[in-house]
Amino acid sequence: xxxxxxxxxxxxxxxxxxxxxxxxxxxxxxxxxxxxxxxxxxxxxxxxxxxxxxxxxxxxxxxxxxxxxxxxxxxxxxxxxxxxxxxxxxxxxxxxxxxxxxxxxxxxxxxxxxxxxxxxxxxxxxxxxxxxxxxxxxxxxxxxxxxxxxxxxxxxxxxxxxxxxxxxxxxxxxxxxxxxxxxxxxxxxxxxxxxxxxxxxxxxxxxxxxxxxxxxxxxxxxxxxxxxxxxxxxxxxxxxxxxxxxxxxxxxxxxxxxxxxxxxxxxxxxxxxxxxxxxxxxxxxxxxxxxxxxxxxxxxxxxxxxxxxxxxxxxxxxxxxxxxxxxxxxxx
Length: 332
Description:
By secondary structure, the protein is mainly beta. Helices cover about 10% and strands about 45% of the residues.
């Protein structure tokens, strides 16, 4: 009996440690907007500052960037950081910057033609979001641009917005599109992900039958409480509260991300605290379905995370200790 009990305890302990996430404290971070990971380093941004950490020991390496329009400076905030072969592609509002991975500035481009921001490279072109119109009424589209920022083709219409428009809490610029070396992945209606090549031709659509979930009163209160208490939004809470329009049901997809030629989709639907994750290849074939425990800022947004080689790297605020933590979670 003792032998059976010992074997059972060993199995239980193995399962606990095998699936435990690694947690690292990052005391340098004041706040977090974005994270990107490559084979050797982790890049985390707060507004116009980028903090570089070693992936070997998670030690702080250096900080790059500052607010401004000059070389080596970023405008308003960093929108995307994309590690490439030997350099970093960094997009702030209306500006593309290239840096060596050791933090040395290389060059910058200021695209023309009404590019709003959130640019991402695809081959020698870019995908990005444009605004056409005025502040009173504007149309937002996803387009392909050439290497100088000239618009080549519109591939998706996000919609028209005016000063009186109601806005869904699920509008997220990182959810509108992602890029790989080959394709632009565009979020379409009813949870469909459309793949376009660099010429703007649709390659295929990934339409998986994800379940939907009713949006309840507690979900609305969760979102509004975050907006009311968050330092970045609380001064605008009265305005935000009037602008927000909640749908009856959650969208099918909460987030999707493209890494290492795989598409990872995180649906909104869940039965418990864990989030489901679906891994697809670029033919639309489902490779893997599993669950992970991810931290959320509120019902419409995870704390920032990236994926590299089936590991999730998420930066999470520990409010009790008033520090930011890096959570490393295996996608098993």
